[in-house]
Amino acid sequence: MTRGFPARQLGPKSRYPDFILILLIPLLIGMEYKFLEHTADVMFESYGKSYEEALENAAKAMFSILGNAKEKEHFQFSVSAHDLEELSVQTLADLLAYADTHEIVLSRMKVLKFDRKACLLEIEAWGEKKRPRDAVKAVTYHEIMVKEDEKGWTIRMILDV
């Protein structure tokens, strides 16, 4: 025994390899997003039953870095792009730019309308005028991933902090 945990036993303990279980854990416990290891920046994956839900959870992950805020102010805007990867990055980048220029810490974002063919979103976001706890400099395209499978949607992004 080490630190109160039993020593790893050799031989089959599960019919699934450890890496499969690690990938399934977020889906099994209903996780909205998780932060991943990255050398200099912040990488995360967000999850949802729909693209809209996964994107809302991606925004929630970014907002959690900026700090906590109440829903005192809100705004709406549209975002368009050529594909879902660009739409995901552009949406978070526009939210970040709005928050920065209006000195608002955002707390929630809701997709009001999503047109997948046209790659167009209408969103609404809420926040509070105050200084952010930490800064996010940019939303990057590096290692961007937007995928749909039988379990739902996953969005992976890296934020420059």
SSE blueprint:
Layout: H1 18-28, E1 33-36, E2 42-48, H2 51-66, E3 73-80, H3 84-102, E4 104-115, E5 120-129, E6 138-149, E7 152-160
Overview of the structural elements:
- With 161 residues, the protein is of the alpha+beta class.
- It has one domain: 3-Layer(bab) Sandwich (Archease, Possible Chaperone, Chain: A, domain 1), CATH 3.55.10.
- Helix content is 29%, strand content 39%.
- The chain contains three helices and seven strands; from the N terminus they run H-E-E-H-E-H-E-E-E-E.
- The protein has helices at residues 18-28, 51-66, 84-102, and strands at 33-36, 42-48, 73-80, 104-115, 120-129, 138-149, 152-160.
- The strands form two sheets. Strands 1-2-7-6 form a four-stranded antiparallel sheet, with helices on one face.
- A hairpin with a 2-residue loop joins strand 6 and strand 7 (152-160).
- The longest helix has 19 residues, at 84-102.
- The protein starts with 17 loop residues before the first helix and ends with a strand.
- The model is unreliable at 1-16 (pLDDT under 50).
**Number of distinct helices:** 3
CATH topology: Archease, Possible Chaperone, Chain: A, domain 1
Secondary structure: number of strands: 7
- Give helix % range: 25-40%
What average pLDDT do the residues reach? 84
CATH class wording: Alpha Beta
Q: In CATH terms, what is the architecture?
A: 3-Layer(bab) Sandwich
From the alpha-carbon coordinates, what is the Rg to the nearest angstrom?
Answer: 18 Å
Poorly predicted regions are: 1-16
Trace the largest sheet across and list its strands.
1-2-7-6
Large-scale geometry: globular
Distance between the termini: 39 Å
Biggest sheet layout: 4 strands, antiparallel
